[in-house]
Amino acid sequence: MKREMDDIRDLYIFDVLKMKRSLDDLASLACTLESRVNEQEDAVEGLTKETMHLAKETIDKERLREREDRLRSSNLRVIGIPEKANRENGAVDIIKEVIEENFAELEDQSLEIVSAHRIPNSVDEHRLTPRHILVKFWSADDKQRILKASRAKKEITYRGTKIRLTADLSPGTIDARSQWASVIKTLQEEGFQPRILYPAKLAFEFRGKTKVFFDIEEFKKFISDIPYLKGLLSNIY
């Protein structure tokens, strides 16, 4: 009888110890899981902070770009007019002559020039092309009228020399527009009539509709579902 009681007691103790080990294992597992959860939460929080920081930087850059573009909204760049030291008219007179030579229909619209000058101000003897002339009009509407007329005429000249007129844009907007250069060239060759809309949006004609894209990622997503365009632009993306 005593032996049987001892066996029962030993079995009970064994079961208790076994249960205790199981509880210890569970507690250890719980600690490990909690540690991993904490690590993941920290990682997510860090990623969120980094993402928020990047988003804020992007927004700040966009705001700065928009602010700079607004300040330049009435400015026009005239590109390609030769420089003749001490023998050329002042920049304001040159612009008036360009308007008279190319846009006689606008002379009656009282286009008011605030200022005009070469940029950069200093002459670089190693520069191979003439400096641009930066023109500031009284209003952005005056600048737009000239740009619209130049697009309609297509070829603009100054005393017989071909020149180019373009809006004066911030460096950020110029960079954003330049990213579309290869796409525009390819689409032009295929007759899609691509063009840049302000400030740096791509527009082109596709299946009877005008498609507009704000950035390259949006454009890449669009062409990924259209095998013809995807193949056409495969050497770019």
From TrEMBL:
Residues 74-168 form the L1 transposable element RRM domain. Pfam families: Tnp_22_dsRBD, Transposase_22. InterPro entries: L1_C, L1_dsRBD, L1_RRM_dom, Transposase_22. Residues 173-234 form the L1 transposable element dsRBD-like domain. This is LINE-1 type transposase domain-containing protein 1. It comes from Apodemus speciosus.
